[in-house]
Amino acid sequence: MTPLNTICLFCGSAVGSSPLYREATMELASVLLKRKITLVYGGADIGLMKVAADTMLEAGGNVIGVMPKNLADREVAHNRLSAMHIVAGMQERKALMAELSDGFIAMPGGYGTFDEIFEMLSWNQLKIIKKPIGILNVKGYFNPLIVQLNQSVGEGFLRPEHRELLLVDTNAAKLIDRMEAFVPVEAEKWIDRLKAGKI
Prior knowledge:
- Helix 2 links the parallel strand 2 and strand 3.
- The protein has a single domain (about 5-195), classed as 3-Layer(aba) Sandwich (Rossmann fold), CATH 3.40.50.
- The chain has a seven-stranded parallel sheet with strand order 4-3-2-1-5-6-7, with helices on both faces.
- By secondary structure, the protein is α/β, with parallel strands linked by helices.
- The chain starts with 5 loop residues before the first strand and ends with a helix.
- Helix content is about 45%, strand content about 15%.
- The protein has helices at about 20-35, 45-60, 70-75, 90-100, 110-125, 145-155, 160-165, 170-180, 185-195; strands spanning about 5-10, 40, 65-70, 85, 105, 135, 165-170.
- About 35% of the residues are buried.
């Protein structure tokens, strides 16, 4: 079992075109509250990020923001968080999020969301971290991405065990249950086999 005291949420700075995105974000926050899990996120006061933070804060939850200074200077920072870390840039932001969090969940978002979740997947693949990573697949938003990842496995660019590093569910509570049961992949074995030309 992987203890999840803190979960980092990657999601949109917009709320999206469907009310289902907001509703699912509030549901995820409610699950975190029930399990007394601290939310770590990008620190913004806009979009689905704001929905998650506000839902947690209004019920007495703990919320930690991590934001680059240039974004904080543009007045998009949430000013009511339990704690806010202002960092120099995006790479420092992701590194601190990884340090503060026991696991990661992506919800619908744009470039930033995809960048963040794939960086954590890469770090897990390379054994830089050993933490569960999940996608909450609201309204089938990530279906094309899942197809692409499966295509990458079929074409020999992504190993099946590394594909399994990304957990996908449509239910927040079930996703967190699966994250708690996460078992890391050992990196050395596949790297050694790759160097030997066996894969």
